[in-house]
Structure formats: structure tokens, C-alpha cells
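Ticket #4471: structure export looks truncated?
Reporter: QA, pipeline team
Priority: medium

Steps to reproduce: submit the single chain below to the structure queue and open the exported record.
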Amino acid sequence: MERENNRFNKEVSLFRKLSFLDLPLFDFAVFGSAPMVAHGLKRSINDLDVIARKSAWEKAKTFGTPEVSRSKFGSVISLMGGAIEVFDQWPPEGKWNIDKLIDEAEIINGLRFVRLEVVAEWKRDSSRRKDLEDITQIENFLRRYRGDQ
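Actual output as written to the record:
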């Protein structure tokens, strides 16, 4: 039980750290696997991936220096030893409109999260073996949520 609580506390701590940055709510959204944590579908993540635009991106730049992202598409600001990464684009190039992702994000506990449908699509497109179980969990959750048994 204690080990499980430690994992939960890590995620709470990551979300709390993001909240402390006080980024303008309507100019960022949490992406990656963290929306699954927000919905109770995943227990553990190592970091938070955040997409940001306009005032949120400008504020993030006051905490760190933008660098070329690992995907070579857009820039990333690594904060708190890499615990939070703030991106101005989301790969692959041309696939995602971050304005739309942010505008359509859902608010959970005071933070904006990219919708699970989008997370599943991104994970499918990424074709990473580690994402297969996540995709199944999201699809099952969405079927139950929508009542599609």
C-alpha cells in the first residue's frame, strides 16, 4: 500500500509543480500519458508533457531556455530537472494544431488535459510497443463512458 501511495504522491507532486508555475490556464494543456492519470487509467508517469502557446509559452520561457525538441519539431523548455517539459509544438509536424488541442482540452482539478481520444490517436500514430496497453485502456474507458457496451 505504501509503495502505491508513493507512486500516487509522485503524480500529485508533478501536477502540483505544474500548478505552481501558474501558467495561464487557457494557453496550455497537459499531453502525453498524463491525461490517463487524470482519468485514473494509469498510475505512474515519469514526467509531464505540456503544450503551450502565447502567454503560457512566454511565461514558461521565464523559467527556462527553449531548446530544439528531441523530435526536431518545435522547441521544448525542460523544467525542474526534466520533470516538466513544455513544448510549443507536438510531433509529427503538420499532424497536430496545438491551438485546437488546447481549446478542446478538458479541465480536471484546475488543469487542462488533452482529450483522451486525441491521446489514443497520438499513441496509435507513435506505434510504440509500450503504448498498446494504454490504447486499449483508453478505448475501453471511452466505450464505457459513452455507454457503447
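Status: closed, not a bug. The export was complete when the record was re-opened. Leaving a note from the reviewer for reference: The helical segments are 2-21, 34-38, 54-61, 98-103, 116-126, 132-146.
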